[in-house]
Specification:
By secondary structure, the protein is an all-alpha fold. The chain contains two helices and no strands.
């Protein structure tokens, strides 16, 4: 059976649900408008920026 959806080299099969306060929602909305990206893509970008804060 063929997988559903478009073929991709980076499948995103891990859903997450979060609650945001007004400030975070406004920041996210402004960023998505400015960069013309989805909220999901904006959140992924934010998570990647956190990588440098991980203590190794």
């Amino acid at each position: 059976m063929a997988p559903k959806g478009r073929p991709t080299d980076n499948p995103k099969g891990r859903p997450i649900h979060i609650r945001l306060d007004d400030k975070c929602e406004n920041i996210l909305t402004e960023y998505t408008s400015q960069e013309s990206v989805s909220k999901a893509e904006a959140i992924r970008r934010g998570i990647i920026k956190l990588e440098s804060d991980i203590k190794k």
